[in-house]
Amino acid sequence: MRPTQLKLRSIRRIILLWALVLPCLAVQLRAQTKPDPVGPWSWTSPLPLKATIGAPSSFPAFQRKTTLMLKLDGDKLTGTIFTQLSQPRTNAVPITDAKLEGDMLSFTATRELNGQRYVQKFSGKLRGDTIKGKIQFGRDGQPQSADWVAQRVVQASQDSPRGQTPPAGVRKDGPAPPQLPRAP
Q1: Which pLDDT score, from 0 to 100, does residue 157 have?
Q2: What's the confidence (pLDDT) of residue 97?
Q3: CA nearest 129: which of 104, 145, 106, 153?
Q4: Which residue has the higher pLDDT, 15 or 36?
């Protein structure tokens, strides 16, 4: 055999070996990188105050801030959702039916307000520091849904483990109320 043929045969073997090894490594790396839901997440939702109070279109829009604190104990996902209802009230409720399957997250939040029971079912895809999905709920007896996008809240203190203390701006009883615009 010629030296050129030996080199080609060696190169082909190396290429074949890498073609077999690389997919196995990719599968291993993908299996090892599980999404991490633990810690505080936050998002804002617009409040339909203009329609509710009949304010003029120049009336400033308000945002409702929601903070979700997630914990993972083994395979069990738990947490609390804090929603600011009105200044200075907040509503903190534990989540139920929480699941993390691969990168898909789901949970239910049930609130009681003025004798009414409100159930919201959250589902979303967890990618890095973002959860993006849908909220299903009922309004006036009709099923409704809305998009939600939560961002991981970076904690100010590195001393406390993730998910143990609320983020800055969140009190133990929920998020701090927003600053309302002052009249001119």
Answers
A1: 52
A2: 96
A3: 153
A4: 36
Q: Is the dihedral angle over the CA atoms 110, 106, 148, 82 positive or is it negative?
A: positive
CATH code, 156? 2.40.128
Which residues 6+ apart lie within 8 Å of 75 measured at CB? Answer: 100
The tokens for 82 are: 């804090």
Verify that 82 and 155 share a domain, yes or no: yes
| Cβ neighbours for 72, distance < 8 A, ≥ 6 positions apart | 37, 38, 78, 100, 163
Give residue 30's pLDDT.
55
Domain assignment of residue 129, given as a range? 39-175
Amino acid at 68: L
Say if 136 falls within a structural domain. yes
Residues 61 and 120 in one domain: yes
Tokens of 165: 């203390």
- Report d(CA 103, CA 176) in Å as an integer: 30
Q: Is 156 contained in some domain?
A: yes
Taking the C-alpha atoms of residue 103 and residue 30, their distance in angstroms, rounded to an integer, is: 12
Question: For the chain, how many structural domains are there in total?
Answer: 2
Assigned domain for 120 exists:
yes
Count of beta carbons in the 10 Å neighbourhood of residue 154? 10
pTM: 0.63
